[in-house]
Design goal:
451 residues, alpha/beta, 14 helices, binds guanosine-5'-triphosphate, binds magnesium ion
Length: 451
């Protein structure tokens, strides 16, 4: 299909939405049918009303991205729908943007996929870190454009080349300087976060991260798994704790990271919810958000959440995108979670498991909404976390020993605690590092023995 479709609500809401928020979405594909679903969802997430759609199947036109006839069609559609923006789901070059803009009515903005995503992130960025990441991505988007303009202006000695305004090398230098300043600041934030993760591990917590495509249901699942009780007062508190992870049927609801304590049988788990993945992002955009993804890359276990109510092919694409994002840097084991199973017809789950066994081996099926399968997921998390060690310590009965026993209760799982005249025996399981610390604490106590 290469024709254009006009939005159904072109007239109905003309008064309520200002022109600059009314958008036509467009996409070109080399072959097959263009799917405008995701770009429309992104447009909605950025606050646009999609008033028209247009797509074309053909090879890329160097000057206009689309064929010239299609650009004329685009102009007509923009006029008819009184749109103030054209959002193009392709990697549109600076000159193509300029050329398309030249064909459109005065003042109509041409926005590509990355600029749109940056716009969403900019609106959602409410922490220093998120703001810095957005700024970094914007600067990295601008840099090659500034370089191109500077070198063209120099070569042609035409500073106002193609009406792009005056550019000299100082603009480029300035962007590079800002990039390096922001990088430094982000790096120091990342170091503090790493130190906090280590502190949490030392306190006996296992760190589990929720990852997955945007809108898969990560935040909903996070709330489902989270304990009613807050993270204990002794654990270091930080603003990322306890804040509610929002869910909305919208792409990129979550931008910053949220950490909450999960309700498990044995292990003390801290769950972190973070930004969703999305397809077709250029590396500089992914890199700008790298430190947000550190909580995923440096976790002890990753739960990769997939919306199982989508068609198999879409699930496959999203799994592949998620794997690409994860496997470059990820160090932790990954458990795939098929979410939203409440929306599946009987038999559908088994079919999808079979069809996707290559990309999603042995997934856990849950509904974050109804809670179905969540108990199994908890068991699976405990089974997949790195093994605990068993230890048995025999301690003298003293105040110091009693405080060690309570420390062991806090940091591990005590299977048995028994008292005999002047001795207490604790049988417990904990992370290897915790067992090692318990041993050395025990050795520091008066006449103690370990078996
Ligand atoms: N039917 C159904 N809907 C669900 C389920 N889990 C989540 N949803 C819905 O899916 C939408 C997205 O859920 P979120 O939890 O915000 O998804 P997310 O992965 O955190 O999304 P972003 O933060 O935007 O990347 C919301 O409308 C949820 O109510 C589920 O198990 N079943
Ligand atoms: Mg979320």
């Amino acid at each position: 299909m290469t024709g254009s479709v006009e939005g159904a609500n072109a007239d109905s809401s003309a008064e309520s939405v200002p022109r600059e928020r009314r958008a036509v979405v467009a996409k070109r594909v080399d072959s097959g049918d263009a799917d405008l679903t995701e770009i429309s969802q992104l447009a909605a997430a950025a606050g646009y009303e999609v008033v028209g759609e247009l797509s074309q199947t053909r090879t890329e036109d160097a000057a206009f991205m689309f064929g010239e006839g299609k650009v004329a069609e685009l102009r007509d559609l923009v006029r008819r729908t009184d749109a103030g923006a054209v959002i193009i789901d392709n990697d549109v070059g600076p000159y193509q943007t300029f050329n398309i803009g030249g064909e459109l009515p005065e003042g109509v903005e041409v926005i590509d996929r990355f600029t749109l995503i940056l716009e969403i992130f900019g609106q959602r960025a409410n922490t220093r870190k998120a703001q810095l990441q957005v700024e970094l991505a914007e600067l990295r988007y601008e840099l090659p454009r500034a370089e191109a303009k500077a070198s063209l202006a120099k070569r042609d000695e035409r500073p106002g080349f193609m009406g792009l305004g005056e550019y000299d090398e100082s603009v480029e230098r300035d962007i590079k300087r800002q990039i390096s300043e922001i990088r430094d600041e982000l790096e120091s934030i990342a170091e503090k976060e790493e130190a906090r993760r280590e502190q949490r591990r030392d306190s006996g917590f296992d760190l589990v991260a929720l990852a997955g495509y945007t809108n898969a249901g990560k935040s909903t699942l996070m709330r489902r798994l989270a304990a009613e009780i807050d993270v204990d007062e002794n654990a270091d508190r930080h603003p990322d704790l306890d804040t509610t992870a929002e869910s909305q049927d919208m792409l990129f609801t979550t931008l910053g990271t949220t950490t909450r304590r999960a309700e498990m049988k044995k292990r003390d788990v801290l769950l972190t919810d973070t930004v969703g993945f999305i397809a077709d992002l250029p590396h500089w955009l992914v890199e700008s958000f790298e430190s947000t993804l550190d909580s995923v890359y440096r976790a002890d276990l990753v739960l990769l959440v997939v919306d199982a109510s989508e068609p198999v092919e879409s699930m496959r694409e999203k799994l592949v995108t998620s794997h690409d994002t994860l496997y470059e840097r990820n160090e932790a084991p990954v458990v795939t979670v098929f979410n939203k199973v409440d929306r599946l017809a009987p038999g559908e789950l088994a079919d999808k498991r079979g069809a996707l066994s290559g990309v999603a081996p042995d997934p856990v099926a849950v509904s974050a909404k109804t809670g179905a399968g969540v108990a199994e997921l908890r068991d699976r998390v405990e089974a997949e976390l790195p093994d605990w060690e068993r230890e048995r310590l025999v301690l003298p009965v003293s105040d110091e020993a009693m405080s060690l026993v309570s420390w062991i209760h806090d940091h591990g799982h005590v299977d048995e605690e028994s008292y005999a005249s002047d001795q207490v025996t604790v049988d417990f399981e904990a992370k290897p590092s915790i067992v090692a610390r318990a041993r050395s604490k025990a050795a520091a106590l008066a006449p103690a023995e370990s078996t």
